[in-house]
DNA sequence: TAAAATAGAGCGTTAAAATGCACTTTGAGA
DNA sequence: TCTCAAAGTGCATTTTAACGCTCTATTTTA
């Protein structure tokens, strides 16, 4: 769906922390099915879902001027 | 819903470009209703919606390690 | 301050996100 | 190669995002 970079960041961060999808699902409060789908590149998560995952992984979502 | 910063960035960027919600809706392909709700702090947009708005406004969404 | 433009809200519909459960596939190690 | 853990998929349900239309509220400007 064109979120390759974001998906990649989440997945790589999770793996570098040696956390399974199941554990991350528990920690973040996101359903396991939802996380699986997301990492598999399916679907279009909501901002809330992304935020929950980011919070659990110590990642922050920012929006800034391109190039700036 | 806790996305204050993101909402604020979108809204301020739109205003600094002197673009109305209606114009941004047209340019981005996001429905006017959806944009209005989002800027009003209601709801929980999908990543795709956020990406469309960001693209139209020259903003990029990034996810990175907190503090890093 | 009256008119016009812009922003926000209510209501209803459609499409899809989020979820659980059960099953299959894949990968790493004994 | 067998086993077990982790990842990925199918199916069904519930919730809700996205949306248009209409109306109201607010802001801007002539």
From TrEMBL, chains A, B:
It comes from the Bacteria. InterPro entries: Cro/C1-type_HTH, Lambda_DNA-bd_dom_sf. SUPFAM superfamilies: lambda repressor-like DNA-binding domains. Residues 10-64 form the HTH cro/C1-type domain. Signal peptide: none annotated. Transmembrane segments: none annotated. GO terms for molecular function: DNA binding. Gene3D superfamilies: lambda repressor-like DNA-binding domains (1.10.260.40). This is XRE family transcriptional regulator.
């Amino acid at each position: 769906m064109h979120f390759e970079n974001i998906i990649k960041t989440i997945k790589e961060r999770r793996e570098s922390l040696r956390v399974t999808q199941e554990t991350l699902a528990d920690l973040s409060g996101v359903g396991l099915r939802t996380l699986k789908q997301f990492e598999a590149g399916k679907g279009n998560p909501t901002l809330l879902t992304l935020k929950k995952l980011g919070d659990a992984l110590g990642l922050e979502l920012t929006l800034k001027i391109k190039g700036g």
